[in-house]
Amino acid sequence: MKLKILIGVLVFLILVNLATIGSYVYFQFTRPPFPPPEWHRDHPPPSPEERLDHRQRREVRRLLRAFMDSTRQAREEIEQLEREIFHLLQQTPAPEEEIEARLNAIAERRMLISRTAIRYLIKTKAFLTPAQQRRFFHALLQARSGMTHPGRSRGKKPFFRRMHPDEYSPEPQPKPEGEQP
Questions:
Q1: Beta strands 148-149 and 152-153: pairing type?
Q2: Most Cβ neighbours (<10 Å): which of 52, 53, 54, 58?
Q3: From CA 151, how far away is CA 154, in angstroms rounded?
Q4: Which helix (H) or strand (E) is 160 found in, with range?
Q5: Would 3 be classed as within a structural domain?
C-alpha cells in the first residue's frame, strides 16, 4: 500500500513539473516583446547628417540648459495654474470665469516659452545644418512642455502623474461636531 502511495505522489509531482515547464515555454512564445511598445522612442536615431560633432554637442547642451533655466519660472507658473484649475473644477458649480482667466494666463506663459524657443533656435543657425536644426527644434519642443531635461530623458508623463498625488485630493471637509469618524 505504501509503495502505491509513493508511486502516486511521484507521478503527481512529475505532472506538476511538466505543467510548470509547459506553462513557462508557452508564455515565452506568447508574451509581448520587451521593451513594451510604449517605451520605444518617438523618433529614430539620428542619421549621419544629423549627428553632432563634439563642439556642436557641447553648444547645443549649453543652449538647452539656458533655455530650461530661462523658462523654469514660466513652467512652474503653468503647473501652479493647472493645479488651481483642478481645484476650481472640484467646486460645485465650477466658476467658469476664473477657470477661463487661468487658461488665458497659461496660454500667455506658453506663448512666452514658445518665443524663447524660437530665439534659441535662431541662435543655432550659426553652427547647425538644417537637419540638425530640425532635431534641435524637436528637443526644444519636448523641453518646452517639460517632458525632458537637457542630457537625459524623463519620458512622457501626463501632468497628473508629474504632480504629487496629495495635490489631487480635495480639501478635507470639516465634520459636524457631533459626528464620530
A1: antiparallel
A2: 52
A3: 10
A4: helix 159-162
A5: no
DSSP 67-102: HHHHHHHHHHHHHHHHHHHHHHHTSSS--HHHHHHH
Is residue 8 included in any domain, yes or no? no
CA 9, 12, 18, 19 torsion: positive or negative? negative
Q: Number of structural domains, the chain?
A: 1
**pTM of the entire structure?**
0.56
152-178 pLDDT tens trace: 444 444 444 444 445 544 455 555 565
Residue at 64 is within a domain: yes
Query: 126, 56 in Cβ contact below 8 A?
Result: no
How far is it, in rounded angstroms, from Cα 3 to Cα 51? 73
Q: Give the integer Cα–Cα distance in Å for 90 and 69.
A: 33
156 is a domain residue: no
pLDDT at 53: 87
- Indicate if the pLDDT at residue 149 is higher than 60: no
From residue 120, alpha-carbon distances to 49, 56, 66, 100, 124 in Å are 21, 14, 9, 30, 7
Mean pLDDT of 105-122: 92
Residue 125 in this model has a pLDDT that exceeds 60: yes
Domain hosting residue 87, numbered range: 56-150
